Amino acid sequence: MAQMNLTHGADHIILLIDNTQETYKQKHYMFENLVKKVKNGSYDRTKAPKLFSYLTDKVRRSFNKEYAGESDSLSVASARLADKELVHEFETDYLPNERKMSIKGTALTGKF
User: Fold this and answer.
1) Of 38, 14, 36, whose CA–CA distance to 27 is shortest?
2) What 8-state DSSP symbol labels residue 73?
């Protein structure tokens, strides 16, 4: 079984999350949880990818199980990239504009 291109795999994982009701709700709940952490000052952008890894791994394993042998598999590296992309989506798209500030000493516009 071949591996998908890393960025293509990450995009595919995010599309699967956004297009499945159960996983979309989980993502939304995670975003709301992170908003609470931002508001109380305990948000740490270095730990945020770990939160999303539970969701991306679940989607990756489900896809690989369902389509075993029929298509390319989604790699763990693609899931880790998807974690970072979800953190970026949270920080740039989900947080209100007035919350775009430096968090734990790292500007939100910084590199991952």
Assistant:
1) 14
2) B
Contact 13, 56 (CB under 8 A): yes
Each residue of 18-64: pLDDT tens digit? 999 999 999 999 999 998 898 898 999 999 999 999 999 999 999 99
Percent of the chain with pLDDT over 90: 56
63: closest CA among 47, 52, 79? 79
In whole angstroms, what is the distance from residue 36 CA to residue 47 CA?
15
Compute the distance between CA of residue 66 and CA of residue 87 in angstroms, rounded to an integer.
27
The confidence score (pLDDT) of residue 5 equals 60
SS3 content of the chain, % helix, strand, coil (to 5): 65, 5, 30
Domain ranges of the chain: 6-96
